[in-house]
Specification:
260 residues; Jelly Rolls; 9-stranded antiparallel sheet; 6-stranded antiparallel sheet
């Protein structure tokens, strides 16, 4: 299992945006509050400015996009700002960005609500740029949430017996004639299960560094990263309780409630 917390993205810009759906929307906690491009069938790029981190940024997750392919590029920053009144001679520039590691290209679920989890090839401890290029045919590109930050790894995936179901927030009222009045609301996924954690490191990383500091805010979680299954990637709140039954291993009960 893997988690990203916190997100180290401090600002974003896009090659195009609908004025009603700006690029900054990808930084909120509401996947339905979208960034949208402005042209059908165009390929658009979001550039994320990512802060430095003592633990090292080494994971990115994307939620609620209609993209068919996503290209992920991590870039060093070699940019300088000139003081007022200074200029460069002809042929000189203030610097460019250079790649860190290999550019990754992913084919994703084309049904309109794709999710992507991508690991950096190695942690990046300094400020850098993350370029995300989205391509779709016959539609205007949209993206719900982008996070990139410190990745917490639990060597084990959730144990066999992991439960996955739905929580329906629809309003149901019984009418006097016996019929139901139903007002449709969002339906989200819920995961419940146990993951075996190393108490001295993994358990307290999850309990103190993530759950206690983050509270009920949604985070990116890859519930079963060994399967490499995007259906196991969820943006949601995390609650956990550990049982110190063994000398070094703590079976930890998880409950993850999706945010859409």
């Amino acid at each position: 299992m893997k988690l990203i917390y916190p997100s180290n993205i401090i600002s974003v810009s896009a090659t195009a945006e609908d004025a009603n759906y700006p690029a900054d929307n990808v930084l909120n906690e509401h996947p339905k509050k979208l960034w949208k491009g402005d042209t059908v069938g165009s390929t658009e790029t979001i550039t994320c400015e990512v802060s430095g981190s003592a633990k090292g940024t080494n994971g990115v997750a994307i939620f609620n996009t209609n993209a068919k392919t996503i290209t992920v590029s991590v870039l060093n920053l070699f940019l300088y700002t000139l003081e007022t009144g200074w200029s460069l001679e002809t042929g000189w520039s203030a610097g460019t960005s250079s790649p860190i590691g290999t550019t990754q290209i992913f084919d994703v679920d084309p049904e309109g609500n794709a999710t992507l989890w991508a690991d950096y090839e190695e942690p990046v401890y300094v400020a850098h740029q993350l370029e995300l290029t989205f391509a779709v045919e016959n539609a205007i590109i949209h993206v719900g949430v982008v996070v990139a930050g410190d990745r917490y790894d639990v060597a084990a995936d959730a144990a066999y017996g992991l439960q996955e179901g739905l929580v329906d927030y629809s309003i149901v009222k019984k009418l006097s004639n016996g019929a139901d009045y139903i007002r449709d609301r969002d339906i989200v996924r819920k995961f419940s299960g146990i993951v075996n954690t190393i108490r001295s490191t993994e358990f307290y990383d999850l309990l103190i560094d993530v759950a206690k500091r983050n509270g009920q805010h949604p985070i990116a979680i890859n519930v079963a990263h060994k399967n490499n299954d995007p259906k196991m990637v969820v943006y949601g709140s995390l609650n956990l309780v550990g049982e110190h039954r063994y000398k070094t291993i703590t079976p930890t009960k998880l409950e993850i409630l999706e945010v859409v």
